[in-house]
Amino acid sequence: MECSNTEPTLEAKIQQGRELIIQAPQLFISVDIEADGIAGRGSILEIAGVSPDGQSIFSSLVFPKNQLFIPEYQQFCDNHGLSRDQLRDAPRSPVVIREFADWVESLCKMYQKEAVFTGFNAGYDKALFDLYCIELGIQNPFVTSPLDIKSMVFGLLGSPWGWDATKKSSLPDNLKPERKFSHQALDDAKYQLEILCLIAYESTNLN
Predict the structure, then answer these.
(1) Average pLDDT for runs of 10 along the chain of length 207
(2) CB contact set of 63 (below 8 Å; sequence gap of 6+)
(3) Looking at the annotation, which residues are catalytic?
(4) How many Å from the N-terminal Cα to the C-terminal Cα in the chain?
(5) How many structural domains comprise the chain?
(6) Count of beta carbons in the 10 Å neighbourhood of residue 167
(7) Please, how many CA atoms are within 13 Å of residue 184, restricted to the half-sphere of its CB?
(8) Is residue 62 part of a domain?
(9) Contact 1/11 with Cβ under 8 angstroms?
(10) 3-class secondary structure for the chain?
(11) What's the longest Cα–Cα distance across the chain?
């Protein structure tokens, strides 16, 4: 009897990796933030989150909190449908950030786990979110340290290492989801969660 060595499909790998993430002792919530600057000089313009199983999502535009921004970041946001003029009717940040924190807390209660802020270049996104929580007096629902998917990709690349190879556009085929990233927060939160699922699969199937 011959053994089948058929390579699993990409979707099968994502699903196997997702199961590993769901079974983890922490709650890895994929979060993406679009902003026209950095923490302390810029505003969150859009925020989205996806639960590990992909069944619960949060997504909202955010009205800029002040007039501070970094020109290059603002131009990038303008080019992707997030200009300040387009956000004039968006919900104000105190409302959105509190609703997002409440959403995370509800998942923590559902899963009975601590939440880990999970993102691609997570330090950038979490610094923005942390500052908003401090400024608004909101209890931060995440543990202190985020999980950075970009760094996990770097660890799987092997030698020679190169940081440019961790760009989403440069990901190796075994870590590249079929869906596209769009620089829209919800799309990108889903995309990076699938990257994490593929990392989980690959890391448990190393030769």
Answers:
(1) 71 96 98 98 98 97 97 96 95 98 98 98 98 97 97 84 85 88 92 97 82
(2) 87, 88, 90, 91, 92, 93
(3) 183
(4) 24
(5) 1
(6) 12
(7) 9
(8) yes
(9) no
(10) CCCCCCCCCHHHHHHHHHHHHHHCCCEEEEEEEEECCECCECCEEEEEEECCCCCCEEEEECECCCCCCCHHHHHHHHHCCCCCCCCCCCCEHHHHHHHHHHHHHHHHHHHCCCEEEEECCHHHHHHHHHHHHHHHCCCCCECCCCEEHHHHHHHHCCCCCCHHHHCHHHCCHHHCCCCCCCCCHHHHHHHHHHHHHHHHHHHCCCC
(11) 70
**C-alpha span between 130 and 57 (Å, rounded):** 20
Does some domain include residue 5? no
Q: How confident is the model at residue 7, as a pLDDT?
A: 84
Expressed as residue numbers, the domain containing 61 is 10-203
Q: Decide if 121 is inside a domain.
A: yes
| CATH number of the domain residue 165 falls in | 3.30.420.10
φ, ψ (nearest 5 deg) of residue 148: -100, 110
